[in-house]
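Structure in, sequence out. Go:
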């Protein structure tokens, strides 16, 4: 048995636009609700949600049956956590709060076996289909998506150097934390935030580096993709549920006499 191709890794390399959804509700049942929608990728979040390894596993199992690639955002740039997620079969990892080249190199190393990295070896894991994938150790570095999240002005200013680290497949700009870092806490769509992000993103795009982000405005998300961003998440499962719940009760109340 051979290691399946990672559709998302291949799409980024081919400069194909990828529309995503942020997944935070920690439920394989919720994953089943969103999986048929046809998103190119989802981000299963462990940094800002109550996800644990078991809940992540259930969601990975759901998305594995579709053409939607489930990337996992690990809690921190921690090689032990990354090792466990990769052994669970995570197709890719988003590393939060990468600040410099050294941290970028540590992130990549966590996804690679020696001598190219520090990932520990497990003989029988879900990632290898319990030992059945015979070319796993030779091919997994080529297929696993490694995304680095930049969340401060200092990190954005080093975007090109960070992106140049071997093994990085894409750079993700985090507008929420960037906003906080520049004194715009709670205002990720503030023009000053995007005046910082967009020039850095365009420099990366010009170099052929895939660039992504998360925004909750579908028009803005489409505009970013049209401007050259490669992978943009355009909503979160929790925000969609909250908005729909609020809208529904408001519509009913409006009809009461």
């Amino acid at each position: 048995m051979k290691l399946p191709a990672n559709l998302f890794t291949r799409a980024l390399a081919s400069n194909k636009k990828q529309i995503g959804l942020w997944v935070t509700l920690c439920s394989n049942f919720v994953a089943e609700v969103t999986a048929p929608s046809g998103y190119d990728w989802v981000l299963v979040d462990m940094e800002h949600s109550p996800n644990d390894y078991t809940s992540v596993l259930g969601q990975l199992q759901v998305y594995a049956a579709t053409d939607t690639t489930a990337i996992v955002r690990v809690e921190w740039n921690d090689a032990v956590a990354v090792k466990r997620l990769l052994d669970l079969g995570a197709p890719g990892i988003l590393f939060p709060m990468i600040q410099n080249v050294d941290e970028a190199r540590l992130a990549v190393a966590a996804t690679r076996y020696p001598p190219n990295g520090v990932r520990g070896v497990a003989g029988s894991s879900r990632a290898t289909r319990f030992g059945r994938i015979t070319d796993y150790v030779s091919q997994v570095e080529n297929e696993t998506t490694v995304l680095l999240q930049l969340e401060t002005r200092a990190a954005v200013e080093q975007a090109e150097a960070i992106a140049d680290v071997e093994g990085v497949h894409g750079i993700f700009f985090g507008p929420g934390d960037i906003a906080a870092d520049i004194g715009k806490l709670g205002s990720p769509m503030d023009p000053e935030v995007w005046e910082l992000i967009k020039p850095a993103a365009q420099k990366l795009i010009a170099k052929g580096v895939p660039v992504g982000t998360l925004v909750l405005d579908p028009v803005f998300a489409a505009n970013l993709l049209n401007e050259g961003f490669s992978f943009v998440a355009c909503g979160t499962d929790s925000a969609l549920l909250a908005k729909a719940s609020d809208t529904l009760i408001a519509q009913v109340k409006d009809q009461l006499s």
